[in-house]
Predict the 3D structure of the following.
Amino acid sequence: MPRLEALRGQLERLGAAASSQVWRLGYASRFLGYLVLHSGTALRRFRLTVAEIYFAGVLSLVIILVSGLFVGMVLGLQGYETLQRFGASESLGVLVALSLVRELGPVVAGLLFASRAGSAITAEIGLMKATEQLSAMEMMAVDPVARVVAPRFWGGVISMPLLAALFSAMGVFGGYLVGVQLIGVDPGAFWSQMQAAVDVRNDILNGVYKSVVFGIAVTWIAVFEGYDAVPTAEGVSRATTRTVVTSSLAILALDFVMTALMFTGTEK
Amino acid sequence: MPEHPIVEIRNVSFGYDPARPVLRDIDLAIARGSVVGIMGQSGCGKTTLLRVIMGALAPTRGEARVLGHATRSLDRDGLYAMRRKMGMLFQFGALFTDLSVFENVAFPMREHGRLPEELVHDLVMLKLQAVGLRGAAHLRPTELSGGMARRVALARSIALDPHLILYDEPFTGLDPISFGVIVRLIRELNDSLGATSVIVTHDVQEALGVVDYVHFMADGRVIAQGTPDDIRASPHPFVNQFVNGRPDGPVPFHYPAPEYGADLAAA
């Protein structure tokens, strides 16, 4: 009987944890709905959103560009090593471009964006809450979701696809540096095969869709965690960690789902 | 009860958990033009009462009428319209750290008014002059002392010439000079703007010097009220202990604990 009781206790805890997560997801969804409905200020006074594009996008450029360059260079090395075994080293451009545009660009840029910009957004909103700045806004009859959260959300959503595109472009350049300049692959073959094989709709647009979805997911998680943070130093720190962990998992899970859907679409 | 009070709290109770009410049957009215103190120990419910007056919390029972509106019946827009006539000074100022002193004071004007920038500039300077910080307009909040930050926050809370100014623990952590400045400003701004001020504080001695009337709270209830002199002379044992800062009395020095000897033996 005591074992049965212990099992029941464990099941109850599991149920409570599951229902609290579902409740939290519902709360986050309502928050997103409210945010979108109250985005008038962010769009009407677009200057506010532009400032956030600067913080989320422009200030992330260094990490995105440098990482893109190195990822492209590694792809160049690894790709050449494999392709030359089959005498297909001229296809290096195709391999580098497709890997970046379809997968690595959106995914790695998304992960970097979550760590660099997502964590900063959560920490900033969380600290504003902890220091009563959001309450002060409420008391001035200014809706903090419209004035603080919505510009950050749209700033992140707009920045992310641009950062992913720059990541891919820089990666292609890195692959070119290693493949063509360092190893000596024919530049004509590198570029022309890439041009012929990369399809705008199936490859580039699908990559863009991914980066848009990742941008929405990461920024939504970041603003929600900041707004919902327990207003203490420990609470903000936990919220920031949750943003990075949840965003990273969300990106990887969404990537799988979207890739599966995209392949299904291609087969038809 | 004053005639046509600006704040009227009728039989208000509130609790996050119905089993443990934070406010119990509060009845009070605040006269227009006065400076009123809501005093009591930490955790007695005075900040919760302030949040009810702000409209941030709806009473679970009773009615709160502020500036002529029953706060419970107001929707978001109605609440915001009411708050445009209110100013609030938070305990530590709650200045926007990404904005300068000037921009902090200009914030409510820019958010609500379609005022030309020259007029905003002049109004901000006027408010900063009133709190003696016109020369600090260009500074960032991180460059201000605690007292200066409180004064900037005060300038921001009167930016839209409010009818009702709420102060949440305005004296906490201030040095004697800053304290003197804030006390003087509360009185002067209240009288010059023709506003009404509500000060929530546990700094009783300091506050008694500035307020016209006091509501004294303990355990979610108003246990005494009157002028500062009435409160100083109150025979109520709790008020007496609190006003005179006695370490022991109705509020015991020791937190409830098992018998002392038993605890020592347990080690």
